[in-house]
Structure formats: C-alpha cells, structure tokens
Amino acid sequence: MELRTAASPKDVKHYTTDRLREEFLIQDLFQAGTIKTIYSHIDRIIVGSAVPTKPLELTAGEEIRAKYFLERREIGIINIGGKGSVTVDGTVYELSYKDGLYIGMGSEKIVFSSENEAEPAKFYFNSAPAHTTYPTVLIKPENCVNVELGSLEGSNHRVITKYILPGQVESCQLVMGMTSLKPGSVWNTMPCHTHDRRMEVYLYFEMPEDALVFHYMGEPTETRHIVMRNEEAVIAPSWSIHSGSGTQAYTFIWGMVGENQDFDDMDGVQMKDIK
Questions:
Q1: CA torsion 177→147→97→129, rounded to 10°?
Q2: Nearest by Cα to 256 from 176, 157, 161
Q3: By C-alpha distance, which of 253, 203, 254 is closest to 229?
Q4: Whether residue 114 has pLDDT greater than 90
Q5: What string of DSSP letters covers 224-245?
Q6: Buried b (16+ CB within 10 A) or exposed e, 21-49
Q7: Does pLDDT of 261 surpass 80?
Q8: Residue 125 pLDDT grade (very low, low, confident, very high; cuts 50, 70, 90)
Q9: Per-residue pLDDT tens over the stretch 68-86
Q10: Which family, according to the similarity comment (predicted)?
Q11: Cα R_g (the chain), whole angstroms
Q12: Looking at residue 131, what DSSP letter applies?
C-alpha cells in the first residue's frame, strides 16, 4: 500500500509541477492481475483498484493494522471494465459496466473476479473508516438519483449519478457517484467550490488515449493545475477546489469522505474571486 501524507495549502502554493503531481496524482491504477491501494492521511481515505485476470482477494496488509480490510472500514466499488463479480463472505454480486457495490464494515473476505479474463473487470474503489455496519448493496446506475445540470452553451452539460448517499445507500461517511459530460461539453464543477468538512477524490475515464483533462486545485485565490489522462485519479484536500476542463467530453467518479454526508454542503466560489 502506497502512503500519502497530508499537505498544507501554505506549502502547496510553492510546489513545482512534479511535486504537485507526486503528492496528489494517482497513476497506473489499473494493472492486470493486481490490486493497487493508496492510503491518504487526508481523512484516511484509501483509493484502490483491482483488475482480476484471476480471482484477487482484498487483504488488509500491514499499513492499516487490521485483521482484515473492512474490520474498521467501509468500501464503495464501481466497475469500469468488463463484466465481473465481487464475492463478499461467500455471497456473489455480479457487476456489469458502471455497476456499483457498497460493502459495510465487518465483511471479512472480499474477492474480485472477471467473467472473461481476456476482457477483465476494472474495479475502482474508495474506502473510509467506519463506526457501524450498514448492509451491502448492489447498485445499478439506472436506479440511482440522476441530476442533469449545466448547458451546452456553458460547455458543462452533464448528468450526475449519485451511487452512495443518505436516503439511497446508507454508509458511515462515504459518499460516491459519477458525473458524465454530454458531447460538446468539457467543464465540470464550474463555478467551483470547496467543502471544508470533507475531502474528495476524482477518477477520470472514458477518455481517448490522446485526450487530457486540466484538473484545477488549490485555494480559490491560489489555483494550480494537474494534467490528467485516462483512468488517472487525483486527491483533493478539503481546502482545495476540484474542477476540470478537458479536450473533449469525459466521465469521472467522485468519492467523498469526512465529517458529513450532505452533498449540498458546499462553500461556493464566485467567478470573480478565482485567481
């Protein structure tokens, strides 16, 4: 498990491009036959992936000092690859493209598998510390809360699909979902905001090989950018904006952990104040 420490906004404003990418960008997530995990000290989130060319079991490792991965944690999983399954303590959950799964604290044995190992599933997950157990739920995007926002004129016509949130799929602190931009739109989350009560991670995908996204972060008056490509993730501290503009339409998965789960608890930034 790779470890990432927290960063002060006072320090980040002095980072070089390489240092900024080293601290916040997550690359090479989806490696065949491998589970990859990144532990961030920012709200103790674990970001990870599993690409099973054979069954892969999620184990705790040394870093979290637990008997099993979900001894004191919960996890949200979304499949962005071929058909696959997640077996939770003997119960099999089938996940097609963009299907999700929430697994509550206390589940001991988690195994990832692909239906066709030549076209493996790509399981992306976020995990947060938990204080109680909520039921495991298979999540179909067509059954989720969907919100259409923006406009083509504003280059931000998009659909937000909310997978894990209060009232739909209960969790201790994890909130998770997906935003899909319509063709011709490239901007997400603009006007931007911060939310000091929780951090966020974005995974950008459905991008051609030659496409990229400029992901904007930093304090609203001290913005920085990270150039991102397909299937790369980025960590956004609670004090940072998290917005992006791509060379064409794309999709991203957002995951939030922290003090609250109120999706609309945002501190908006006026366009005139961004620097």
A1: 10
A2: 176
A3: 203
A4: yes
A5: EEEEE-TTEEEEE-TTS--EEE
A6: bebbbbeebbeeeebbbbbbebbbbbbbb
A7: no
A8: very high
A9: 999 999 999 999 999 999 9
A10: Belongs to the KduI family.
A11: 18
A12: S
pTM for the structure as a whole: 0.95
Architecture of domain 2-273: Sandwich (2.60)
Count CB neighbours of 188 within 10 A: 29
Q: 49: which 2 tokens?
A: 């992936």
The one-letter code for the residue type at 246 is G
Q: Report the half-sphere exposure of 70 (CA within 13 A, side-chain side).
A: 25
- CB of 225 within 8 A of CB of 175? no
User: Distance between terminal CA atoms of the chain?
Assistant: 36
Dihedral angle, C-alpha 70, 74, 79, 83, nearest 10 °? 50
Question: Is residue 272 pLDDT above 90, yes or no?
Answer: no
Residues 25-71 pLDDT 10s: 999 999 999 999 999 999 999 999 999 999 999 999 888 999 999 99
Q: What is the DSSP string of 4-23?
A: E----HHHHTT--HHHHHHH
Tokens in use for 78? 């979304």
The span from the CA of 97 to the CA of 45, in Å, is 24
**Interatomic CA distance for residues 112 and 125, integer angstroms:** 12
Strand order in the sheet with 2-4: 2-4, 34-40, 46-51, 123-129, 73-79, 100-103, 137-139
Residues flagged as binding site: 193, 195, 200, 242
Is pLDDT of 205 > 90?
A: yes
CB 191 within 8 A of CB 272: no
Distance CA 213, CA 5 (A): 25
> Domain ranges in the chain?
2-273
